[in-house]
Amino acid sequence: MSPEPRSVLVTGGNRGIGRAIAEAFLAQGDKVAVTSRSGGGPDGALDLTCDITDPDAVEAAFTQVEEAHGPVEVLVANAGVTADTLLLRMSEDDWSRVIDTNLTASFRLAKRAAKGMLRLRRGRIVFISSVVGLLGSAGQVNYAASKAGLVGMARSLSRELGSRSITANVVAPGFVDTDMTAVLSDDQKNAIKQQVPLQRYGTPEEIAAAVTWLTGEHGGYVTGAVIPVDGGLGMGH
């Protein structure tokens, strides 16, 4: 259990990795708020419907969290989308929608959360990236660019905010057993596993464990880091 319950905000917290992260913080006794476009967060969380690409919606969500739980002390920017296709077929909308959701919205969330953290003189920011942002992936130019951008963002924030005891880190999952990977065929799943040294998919709970460690008392001297949780797929990057 945490010494004092903290105000935690997890975006995309209604399913998959985001839900597992929210549940892990709830299990520690923290005060957790989750955002999603459709709702349906875990029991015990403040469940907020929010389109993170809308600045007004983000401001409204933070206001609700602050009224219910106090200033956000831990931000986990997890929400993301894909629009996969080869470069020459990728539309302007395919590019913009993924960058706006995965990268620009993360900037918006971090900026808003930092206001409260600076006043508190403490805070933890974690961006959920992807091994694809480190390795690249054919057919995912937009997604890879958005996830790689989170690394530069986190490292810049760690230098900018570190003097106020605010850390900014990246967790980079590999292939994880979620709704997004469930749609793959058995042949596709087996081909992916062959690339992974541990020969299996990760679980959402394994990603959540990395996030709670980074944001816990033992992760206080880690900032500007990229923590891969990918079964060894992206080693060396």
TrEMBL record:
Keyword Oxidoreductase recorded: yes
Domain of life: Bacteria
Domain (Ketoreductase) ranges: 6-179
Keyword hit for Oxidoreductase: yes
Keyword terms, alphabetized: Oxidoreductase
SMART domains, per the entry: PKS_KR
Family: Belongs to the short-chain dehydrogenases/reductases (SDR) family.
Record protein name field: Beta-ketoacyl-ACP reductase
Species of origin: Nocardioides aestuarii
